[in-house]
Amino acid sequence: MIAVLHTGDAERGLLWQAQFAEHLPEVQFRCSGDAGALKDVRYLVAWTLDAGLIASLPSLEVVFSIGAGVDQLDMSMVPPGVRVVRMIESGITTTMAEYVAMAALALHRDLPFYLAQQRAGLWSPQPVLLCSERSIGVMGLGELGQASLEKLRALGFRTLGWSRSGANIEGTRCFAGQGELGAFLGQSQILVNLLPLTDDTRGFLCRDLFDRLPQGAGLINVARGGHLIEADLLDALASGQLRHAVLDVADPEPLPEGHPFHSHPAIMLTPHVAGVTRRETAVHALIANVRRAMAGEPMHGEVDRSRGY
Ligand code: NAP
Ligand code: GLV
Predict the structure, then answer these.
(1) Given ligand 1 and candidates 86, 163, 306, which is best to mutate, with the most ligand atoms within 8 Å of its CB?
(2) Which of 272, 279, 284, 305 is catalytic?
């Protein structure tokens, strides 16, 4: 008997159970309330991990993240031979690209400023630029960074991209590594963060980085709250080095009551909804990967555990 064990949202578990029964009946899909014999479980599907549960799964081969990120999985709990896979599926990719487009247009057209103005009963139009007169830089050129760039190009923005190893993307000027970071940042009037959260990227959105952006730049953080040094953002907004920010993620989530981000006039905050795993599409990505694992083939989105993404 080969089993998948799903932890988390019960409604999603039941829907995915039905899909496995239809499309991969040789694998039993079990939900955490009804896990059955744990020695059968080769595949675990989870958002976060439980050390006791992991220790009770002697046949575990693969941990599948329910989301695109894997930083929320405590890898120290996962035995060395177990593979870890992030979720790549059209629902997350499409919703993320749409959110980034929305946030980019909001900053491009000065929406935080006008919302604050409306609350204050003021009426003061600002100069208007075309999208083709605005440069947006995306950090992280993986699944979500590239999809977001495609939407930004379709809107007419001048686009730049940066990642560890660089990329070749038609219509986007790409930069690679620390050596080219300064040139990339210096031209990014709006900066989008789509890096994974790793030891190398924690706290990356900090004073030093903000100082290398053009004065009055905008920031969009749709990756993880741990990328951002909050005090540095508040200072950069106060000094005018940054004009405004859209934040979809925070640390911790939710932010505590009274946190300055809740009421800051130059910050638009959303509750981690930029890229959302769609149950209906994600289950097919999962089934395809379980088939690959059973056939001994490489899976889509397999994480290099040594680098953390
Ligand atoms: P991905 O496909 O793994 O791409 C990661 C990209 O980041 C790659 O281009 C990689 O460069 C680059 N990178 C990693 N470490 C780097 C470093 N130290 N310096 C420079 N570049 C680095 O990831 P993804 O699927 O696009 O997802 C990105 C992140 O989005 C996730 O990890 C998650 O945190 C976040 N996310 C947020 C939401 C939300 O709702 N807010 C939803 C989904 C995902 P190389 O190609 O050179 O390795
Ligand atoms: C959400 O944040 C994800 O990682 O999919």
Answers:
(1) 163
(2) 272
